[in-house]
Every structure is written in structure tokens, then in C-alpha cells.
């Protein structure tokens, strides 16, 4: 990958501080002081070095991992005004709720796996030696109504690929929110060095398949009887798009 490379630290202290922030999503300096037996000056210097190297950023007194995700944008389509923006740690509960509702409605098994992990870890952004993940959300009146998520394993042979999930609450569909989320996610992936984005959906969800096809995605494979939903075998439709 290009922008989302594995961090390389100058000291063990910097690595331990980064790992703590990455695992917890957003922390204060007081949190770090309580978690580590480190003199104040050394802690301050280590945080400053991580910020200077572009690994951490500070906002309103909170430290979080630094991943360039761009600014929020506002759209008005078919009489509905909504915002597309990078997710924040404070979006966690709303994000989990929306993902669960959409995943259960559409038997979106990949999204179910993602939301279970998100709910368990309670961290929106991840970037470590194993994986990287980011979220963008769509909001109406500051409430999360949709998401797009990209995840990439940090392995050389797969570093050019990212898995995508996305969805919009049923009552907000038909206003272009899904298209704007898709565009934002693919644009971010392209600008950060990814070459291919992929996902899998149950073949019974042809609304999702048509949506993806309308956005240049192609079916790469069908795995017959891959899912068993309510006692019935359902094929998995594996789709991808080259950037």
C-alpha cells in the first residue's frame, strides 16, 4: 500500500504508545500517563515524535491514529440533505446499530462479521501489523444512516487489495446516499494506492448486485451453496472492481 504503510518506530516507547492508541481508538495524555510508567518529559517527546512522523494526531485533546481521510461533504438529493464524512470514534454506537440493521435485513454475512468485530473491539479505525480498516459514514441531522468500510490485510501479496462493505438504512434509500458513499470509498482507496476492491454478497440479494454492477463492479465467481440461511442453501456472489 501507499499511504497506509506499516509504522516504523524509532524507539520501543513510541511503538508501545502507538499500539495503545490504536487499540483504544482515541485517548487523552492522562490516559497514557496512567497506562505507562514513563516520566512526563519522555512521554511528551515520544508523542511529539509520533505526531511529527504522521502516526498520531491530536484533536480536541484526544490522540488517535493519523490516517488521511479527507473532509466532510454535504449533498442535497431528492429533497434530502445528508453529509458524507470520515467516521469518528464517537460514531461507534450509531455505526454498529446501522450495520446490524442492514446486515440482518439483507443476510449480509460479510457485514455481520465486520460489525461483530467492531462491536467487540470498540474501535472504529485500525492500523497495525495485521490489518488496516477505515469507515466513512452518511449522516442526516447528525445521525448515522449509512456507511462504507474498507479493510486490507497488511500482507505484501494482498497489499493492493481492499475488502469493502457498505449499506444504507432502508428509509433513506433512493436519495443517492449509497452512490455517494461508494464514490467516497473508491476514491479514497484509489488515492491510497489500492488497485482492486472486492466484496461478497448472497446471490439472492440481486438489488445489491445490480447496484454494484451500476458502479462498474463485475462478478468474479459464484460459490454454490456457500451459505445456509434459514435452512436453505444460498450461493455467494464474489464481486470486484479494478481502480
Overview of the molecule:
This protein is an alpha+beta fold and 243 residues long. The chain is 35% helix and 33% strand. It has 7 helices and 11 strands. It has helices spanning 12-24, 29-35, 40-52, 92-105, 109-121, 177-191, 206-214; strands at 56-59, 62-65, 73-77, 80-86, 126-127, 131-140, 143-153, 161-168, 196-202, 218-229, 232-242. A hairpin with a 2-residue loop joins strand 1 and strand 2. The model has no long low-confidence stretch (mean pLDDT 92).
Key traits:
alpha+beta; 243 residues
Measured by DSSP, the beta-strand proportion falls in: 25-35%
Biggest sheet descriptor: 9 strands, mixed
Extract low-pLDDT stretches: none
Percentage of residues in helical conformation: 25-40%
Oligomer: single chain
Please count the beta strands (DSSP E, at least 2 residues each).
11
Number of helices: 7
CA gyration radius, whole angstroms = 19 Å
Distance between the first and last residues' Cα:
14 Å
User: What structural class should be given to the helix and strand makeup?
Assistant: alpha+beta
- Rounded mean pLDDT is 92
Amino acid at each position: 500500500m501507499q499511504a497506509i504503510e506499516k509504522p516504523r518506530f524509532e524507539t520501543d516507547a513510541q511503538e508501545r504508545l502507538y499500539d495503545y492508541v490504536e487499540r483504544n481508538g482515541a485517548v487523552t495524555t492522562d490516559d497514557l500517563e496512567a497506562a505507562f510508567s514513563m516520566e512526563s518529559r519522555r512521554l511528551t517527546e515520544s508523542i511529539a515524535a509520533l505526531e511529527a512522523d504522521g502516526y498520531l494526531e491530536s484533536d480536541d485533546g484526544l490522540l488517535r491514529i493519523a490516517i488521511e481521510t479527507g473532509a466532510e461533504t454535504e449533498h442535497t438529493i431528492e429533497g434530502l440533505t445528508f453529509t458524507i464524512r470520515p467516521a469518528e470514534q464517537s460514531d461507534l454506537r450509531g455505526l454498529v446499530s446501522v450495520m446490524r440493521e442492514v446486515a440482518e435485513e439483507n443476510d449480509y454475512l460479510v457485514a455481520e462479521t465486520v460489525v461483530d468485530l467492531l462491536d467487540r473491539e470498540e474501535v472504529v479505525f485500525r492500523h497495525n501489523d495485521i490489518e488496516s480498516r477505515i469507515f466513512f459514514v452518511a449522516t442526516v441531522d447528525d445521525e448515522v444512516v449509512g456507511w462504507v468500510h474498507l479493510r486490507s490485510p497488511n500482507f505484501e501479496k494482498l497489499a493492493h487489495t481492499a475488502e469493502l462493505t457498505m449499506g444504507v438504512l432502508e428509509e433513506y434509500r433512493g436519495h443517492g446516499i449509497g452512490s455517494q458513499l461508494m464514490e467516497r470509498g473508491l476514491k479514497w482507496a484509489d488515492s491510497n494506492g489500492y488497485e482492486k476492491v472486492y466484496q461478497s454478497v448472497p446471490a439472492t440479494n440481486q438489488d445489491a448486485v445490480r447496484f454494484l454492477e451500476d458502479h462498474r463492479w463485475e462478478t468474479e465467481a459464484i460459490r454454490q451453496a456457500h451459505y445456509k440461511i434459514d435452512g436453505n442453501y444460498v450461493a455467494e456472489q464474489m464481486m470486484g472492481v479494478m481502480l
